From TrEMBL:
Protein name (database record): Propionyl-CoA synthetase
SUPFAM superfamilies, sorted: Acetyl-CoA synthetase-like
Domain AMP-dependent synthetase/ligase, first and last residues per copy: 67-445
Protein family: Belongs to the ATP-dependent AMP-binding enzyme family.
MF terms in GO: propionate-CoA ligase activity
Residue ranges of every copy of the AMP-binding enzyme C-terminal domain listed in the record: 510-589
Length: 632
C-alpha cells in the first residue's frame, strides 16, 4: 500500500492512472475506460463511459457484501427523545419503497426534487430514493426563509417538493409547511406535488390536489430497483452562496463523487466498514451529503444522524453522550459547536460522566479552527483534533491529514497538507505563482480530482467565469492564504464577499442588495465581524438618504427584519451602524477589508488608493460608540 507522499506524488504526476486505480473500488455496472476527458473550455469529465447508481452503492451493494443486518443509520434526536436504528436492509427497503412511490408520481431520471426537511431519517431516505431513480435532489437547509427557498425552486424547477410538517430548534417548533406554501406563492415555477412527512409536534394542513401525505403515498408503493446511470449524470444540486443574491447551484456527478467518497472515508478519515461515523452537520449542507449520507454508507459504515445541538439539548455533554452511546469511532464537526460547548462547560465537567474510548479522532472544518479551541478540545478528550479544509464546490477535503495513509502530522494554524489529487498553489493578483510563506489567492491546478463540481446548474458560463477564468489553468477557490516550505496550507479567509457564520456560508453581497432595497438607505456595506462563538457575524454599515426621517434604532430594526424575512434567521444579521460616509477608493470601490479591520480593532494602514483618509477616523469613532472595537 502506498503511503501519503507516494500517493500524493503519483496523483499529480499521473492523475489518469491514479484515479483509474481508485475507481476499481467502485461497483460500477459498467467499468469506465475513458478515465479523464479535457473539454475545450477548461473543465473536464471523469469516467465518462462508466455506469453506476449511487443508491445501489450506498445500500444494495453493502447488503450484497454481507452487511444487511449491520446498522446503517442511527437516528438520535434529543429534541424529540426518539432513537431509531435502521439496518442496511431496513434502510434499503424504506428507500426502495419511497423510490417506487416517487416513480408512481412521475418522478424519473433527470427530474428535479427539492428536499426541505429537518434532520429526520426521511430526509436521507428522500435523497437516496432520488438517487435510485436518477432524479436530481436539491436539499435546502431548513433555516432558509421562503424567499430563498423560492429562488431555489425557480432555479432547480423541481417536479416535486419533499418536506416535513415541522423541525425543532431547541424547544421551539418551527412549522415547515407554511414556509413551503409561502415559497410557492413567491416562486414562478410550480412543482406538481408536495409530499409531507407529518410529525406529531405540529401536523401540517394539506392542500387537496397538490399536497400528499408521505405515509399514505408510500404505504402501497412497489419497491423500485436502482436505475443504471452515466457517470456524468447529476446526482444532486447543492445551492451555495456566491457574491451576488443568486445562489450558485453546484452540480455533483454520480461517478466522480462515488470514487471520491470511496477514496476519502478510508484514506482521509481512516474509516473502515463496520466503523461508526458521526458527521455533525445538517443534510442541508455539503457535509450532510458527503459525511452524513453518501460517504459513510458507500463505505459500509454506520452513520449517526443527530437531530440536536451541541448545547441545551439538553446540555453541553450531548456530544459526549452520543459518542459513548453509539460507540462513535470518529466524527466531523464545526469549530462553532466546540466553542459553544466550551462556553457552557469550560472545564469539561460533563465529559467526566462519559466514556470516549471508542473515539479515535475528531475532524473539524467549515470555518477557521482557532488554536485555542483546538488545544482545549485535544486536552479535554485526549484525542487528535484535525483541522481540514474544503468547500461545497469540491465536495470533499482539499487539505486534510490522510490518517488512512499514515499521515496525521499537523501544524498550528494549518488545515494540513493537500489531499492526493489536489495541486494546491498560491498566486498573486496577476496570477503569478508565489513561493513558500507568501500570502495570496489559493488556487488548485487543473484537473481537479473526481467529485469536484464541473458546472453550475443551468449556468455553465457562470461556472467558467467564477472558477476557471480568473487564473487560467487553475481553479479559483475564493480563499486566501499561504503554503509553508513543507507544503502545509494555511487558510486566512475568503477573498470575496462570502462569510461563514456558525459554519454556515452566506453572502454579504446578497445582504447588501437587500439593505439597498430599503427606502431610507443611500449606500451600505456589510462586513463580517468576529464573534466568540459563531466565528463571524455580519454587521451592516449604512449611509442614510438626506431626507430619511428614521432614527438609528428604527433603521436597525427594519433592516434586521428585512434580512431575517428574506434570507432567514441563520444569517444572524442583528447589528446596523449608521455612518455619514463609507470609505472608498478613488474609483469608487468600498474598502470593506479596512472596515473589517477597524471593526475588529486590528491594525490597518490606509490604502494608497483611498479617496479621503479622514473617513476612516469617523468610522472608527462610530463603531467604537456602537460597542465595536475602538480605533487603532
Ligand atoms: N431551521 C430553522 N431555523 C434554524 C435552523 C433550522 N434548521 N438552524 C438555525 N436556525 C435559526 C435558529 O433557531 C436561530 O434563530 P433565532 O435567531 O430565532 O434564535 C438562528 O437560525 C441562528 O441560528 P444559529 O446560528 O445556529 O444560532 P443558535 O444560537 O441557535 O445556536 C449553536 C448556536 C452554536 C448551538 C449553533 O450555531 C450550532 O449548533 N452550530 C454548529 C453548526 C454546524 O454544525 N455547522 C456545520 C455546518 S457544516
Ligand atoms: P462551504 O462551501 O459552506 O463548505 O464553505 C467553504 C468555505 O468555508 C471555504 O471556502 C472557507 O472559506 C471556509 N472553510 C472551510 N473549512 C475551513 C477551514 N478548515 N479553515 C478555514 N476556513 C475554512
Amino acid at each position: 500500500m502506498m503511503n501519503y507522499r507516494q500517493s500524493y506524488d503519483r496523483s499529480l504526476a499521473d492523475p489518469v492512472s491514479f484515479w483509474a486505480e481508485q475507481a476499481e473500488a467502485v461497483a460500477w455496472y459498467q467499468r469506465p475506460r475513458n478515465i479523464l476527458e479535457h473539454l475545450a473550455d477548461g473543465s473536464h469529465r471523469w469516467f465518462a463511459d462508466g455506469r453506476l447508481n449511487s443508491s445501489y452503492l450506498a445500500l444494495d451493494q453493502q447488503i450484497a457484501l454481507g452487511r444487511g443486518e449491520q446498522a446503517a443509520l442511527i437516528y438520535d434526536s434529543p429534541v424529540t427523545g426518539v432513537q431509531q436504528r435502521f439496518s442496511y436492509r431496513e434502510l434499503r427497503d424504506e428507500v426502495a419503497r419511497l423510490a417506487g412511490a416517487l416513480r408512481a408520481l412521475g418522478v424519473g431520471k433527470g427530474d428535479g426534487v427539492i428536499i426541505y426537511m429537518p434532520m429526520v431519517p426521511q430526509a436521507a431516505m428522500a435523497m437516496l430514493a432520488c438517487a435510485r431513480l436518477g432524479a436530481v435532489h436539491s436539499v435546502v437547509f431548513g433555516g432558509f426563509a421562503p424567499y430563498e427557498l423560492a429562488l431555489r425552486i425557480d432555479d432547480a424547477k423541481p417536479k416535486l417538493i419533499v418536506t416535513a410538517s415541522c423541525g425543532l430548534e431547541f424547544e421551539r417548533v418551527i412549522e415547515y409547511k407554511p414556509l413551503v406554501d409561502k415559497a410557492l406563492e413567491l416562486a414562478l415555477h410550480q412543482p406538481a406535488q408536495v409530499m409531507v412527512w407529518q410529525r406529531p409536534q405540529a401536523m401540517a394542513e394539506l392542500h387537496a390536489g397538490r399536497d400528499l401525505d408521505w405515509r399514505e403515498t408510500v404505504a402501497h408503493a412497489e419497491p423500485a430497483d436502482p436505475v443504471e446511470l452515466a457517470s456524468g449524470d447529476p446526482l444532486y444540486i447543492m445551492y451555495t452562496s456566491g457574491t451576488t443574491g443568486k445562489p450558485k447551484g453546484i452540480v455533483r456527478d454520480n461517478g466522480g463523487h462515488a470514487v471520491a467518497m470511496q477514496y476519502a472515508l478510508p484514506n482521509i478519515f481512516g474509516m473502515q466498514p463496520g466503523d461508526v461515523w458521526w458527521g455533525i452537520s445538517d443534510v442541508g449542507w455539503v457535509v450532510g451529503h458527503s459525511l452524513i449520507v453518501y460517504g459513510p454508507l458507500m463505505n459500509g459504515c454506520t452513520t449517526v444522524f443527530y437531530e440536536g445541538k451541541p448545547v441545551r439539548t439538553p446540555d453541553a455533554g450531548a456530544y459526549w453522550r452520543v459518542i459513548q452511546e453509539h460507540k462513535v469511532n470518529a466524527l466531523f464537526c464545526a469549530p462553532t459547536a466546540i466553542r459553544a460547548i466550551r462556553k457552557e462547560d469550560p472545564h469539561g465537567e460533563l465529559l467526566k460522566h462519559y466514556d470516549l474510548s471508542s473515539l479515535r479522532r475528531l475532524f473539524l472544518a467549515g470555518e477557521k479552527l482557532d488554536s485555542s479551541t483546538q488545544h482545549w478540545l485535544e486536552e479535554l478528550t485526549g484525542k487528535p483534533v484535525h483541522d481540514h479544509w474544503w468547500q461545497t464546490e469540491t465536495g470533499w477535503p482539499v487539505t486534510a491529514p490522510c490518517t488512512g495513509l499514515g499521515s496525521a502530522d499537523q501544524r498550528p494554524g494549518s488545515s494540513s497538507l493537500p489531499v492526493p489529487g489536489y495541486n494546491v498553489q498560491v498566486v498573486d493578483e496577476e496570477g503569478h505563482l508565489l513561493g513558500p510563506n507568501q500570502t495570496g489567492s489559493i488556487v488548485i491546478g487543473l484537473p481537479l480530482p473526481p467529485g469536484c463540481a464541473q458546472t453550475l446548474w443551468g449556468d455553465h458560463p457562470r461556472y467558467l467565469n467564477a472558477y476557471l477564468r480568473t487564473y487560467p489553468g487553475y481553479y479559483h477557490t475564493g480563499d486566501g492564504g499561504y503554503v509553508d516550505e513543507d507544503g502545509f496550507v494555511y487558510i486566512m479567509g475568503r477573498t470575496d464577499d462570502v462569510i461563514n457564520v456558525a459554519g454556515h456560508r452566506l453572502s454579504t453581497g446578497e445582504m447588501e442588495e437587500l439593505l439597498a432595497l430599503h427606502g431610507a438607505v443611500a449606500e451600505c456595506a456589510v462586513i463580517a465581524v468576529q464573534d466568540p462563538i459563531k466565528g463571524h457575524v455580519p454587521l451592516g454599515l449604512v449611509v442614510l438618504k438626506d431626507d430619511a426621517r428614521l432614527g438609528e434604532e428604527q433603521v436597525q430594526r427594519e433592516l434586521v427584519a428585512l434580512v431575517r424575512e428574506r434570507i432567514g434567521a441563520l444569517a444572524c444579521f442583528q447589528r446596523v451602524v449608521v455612518v455619514k460616509r463609507l470609505p472608498k477608493t478613488r474609483s469608487g470601490k468600498i474598502l470593506r477589508a479596512v472596515l473589517r479591520k477597524i471593526a475588529d480593532a486590528e491594525e490597518y494602514a490606509p490604502p494608497s488608493t483611498i479617496d479621503d483618509p479622514a473617513i476612516l477616523g469617523e468610522i472608527a469613532e462610530r463603531l467604537g460608540a456602537a460597542g465595536f472595537a475602538r480605533a487603532c
